[in-house]
Amino acid sequence: MFRFNLFSLFGMKKYFYLFLSNFFILILSATSYDLKKPVGITNIVINNICKDSIINIKNMGAKGDGITDDWKIIERAVTILDDNGGGIIYFPKGVYIVGNAISLKSNITYRGESKTETIIKASNSSLDNVFGQGYPLYLQWKKARKVGGTIDRLKKPDFISNYSEDEAFSTGGMAGLAITNVKIENLTIDGNKDKRQENKVNFKGVSEYPFFAGEKISSTSGGKAIISGVFNGDDGFSVEPRTIEGVFKVGDRVKGEESGSIMTIKGKKADDAYQMLIRFDGVSHSVVKNCILKNSIFTALSIYNNSNNNKIINNEFYNNNKSGTDFTWGRMNIFVEFDARKNIIENNIIKGGLGYSVFVQSTGGMNYDTQIINNKIYNPGGDGIRVGNETSISPIINPIIIGNTVIGAQGTGAVGIRIIHYGEGTISGGIISENTVKNCIYGILLQGRVEKTKVTGNIVSGSKKVNVGSTATFNNNIIKDN
Predict the structure, then answer these.
(1) Following CA atoms 318, 370, 180, 291 in sequence, which dihedral angle do they give, to the nearest 10 degrees?
(2) pTM of the model
(3) Residue limits of the Right handed beta helix domain (predicted)?
(4) pLDDT 10s per residue in the chain (482 long)?
(5) Is 141 exposed, middle or buried (0-12, 13-18, 19+ CB in 10 A)?
């Protein structure tokens, strides 16, 4: 495994306002062959373990014993299938420990023998996601000098054309991957929130130039550490406790050894790892079905960054999110975010969690045609279903919320179903119908810039404050027969 330094690549480390988190290049194979086998695997072995594009992961050498880290072997199987157009990785019953994120590749199915007895579990020390892109990559470009040309894979919202450097440097941009036809099915996907230490240190401050994940830093109080993550928009970064020597105090000047960047610590808070169970980032026309997702630290399942036409169906979510997480906007079971469109969330059971059970938002890009249908949500820590942003210029169009049950949203100000939008954008064309909402602080609310939305035929009872209400800016919504 090699750490890749974008500053060295571009030769202008002082001029990129770059936020990124652990971007790795994984060298998994180096030899060509009939089935493009990884080094050390013969054609005979490949032919035996990969029949009809199906790999039994135990035939590859995975243990599934709940002790051995099977991640490298799983990645090897992913590489074999990816190099040959796709196929199925079959996981027999067992507990497969992974210390890093399992890559998602086009046309690959990750299938368990039994959703209750086939478990993919984050190792106790993992800070990474379980499935999806490795520790999320953020490329937010600001204040960079112009050198001409385009930035490869820094995509415009159409996710087809590249930003020119002029555009990227003036407006910022987000990089991603284009992945299609992924299936994750019949698995338990288990995080490690009970094993992660609290009091991960989160420094907040101001720096003219960026720090980056993996960089060594030191403080004027004698502290030394390695950055585990840099978070876009928070003027800060987080440090895992095991990397810390000495002291980091509020008021200290912190210097990056490689970037030369300097930050003055303005605040310090407890935090936890930025770990998700499944992260779809630029993933479309894909499915997660018949899975159990539990014990995430951050969001359990994220549909992000131009991930479109996906289906999240017949899954169960339990005991997700961790109390110490400073980034409270990440406490979701299902998060549909940043320019994600035409996604379907149907027939899932969601129990508990510290924040919203299903959250659809549009910060950074339009969201439309999300369908939330026939889900059962019990005792969420925040809103049961929340569509919209407290501030955004991007619209949300045609959200469909039909046939859901939300019971016991009792967090401060929690709403069973909330449609909310402020800023310049609007939510329009919504249908909220035939839902059952019981024993929440508020039942169903429309707030802010919501228009042409129908709230009809819902059963709402036991709300402590309002069963069905609206403070929407527009009066062309229809609320009746509830």
Answers:
(1) 20
(2) 0.75
(3) 263-413
(4) 333 333 333 333 333 333 322 222 222 222 222 334 333 343 434 444 555 689 999 999 999 999 999 999 999 999 999 999 999 999 999 999 999 899 999 999 999 999 999 999 999 878 788 998 654 333 333 333 334 444 343 444 444 555 454 444 444 334 444 788 999 999 999 998 887 655 455 666 667 677 776 778 888 988 888 776 665 444 555 565 455 677 777 788 888 888 888 888 776 554 555 678 999 988 899 999 999 999 998 899 999 878 899 999 999 999 998 866 555 666 899 999 878 889 999 999 999 998 899 999 987 678 889 999 999 999 999 999 999 987 777 889 999 999 999 999 988 889 999 999 987 889 999 999 999 999 999 999 999 999 999 999 999 999 999 999 999 999 999 999 99
(5) buried
Contact residues for 418 (Cβ-Cβ < 8 A; gap 6+): 383, 385, 386, 387, 388, 442, 444, 445, 447
Q: What is the 3-state secondary structure (H, E, C) of 297-343?
A: CCCCEEEECCCCCCEEECCEEECCCCCCCCCHHHCCCEEECCCCCCC
Distance in angstroms (rounded) separating the CA atoms of residues 227 and 256: 9
CB–CB of 266/248 below 8 Å?
no
Two structure tokens written together for 230: 């840099």
Residue ranges covered by each domain of the chain: 200-271, 291-480
Q: Which residue reads 């379980």 in tokens? A: 130
Residue 356 CA to residue 444 CA, distance in Å, equals 14
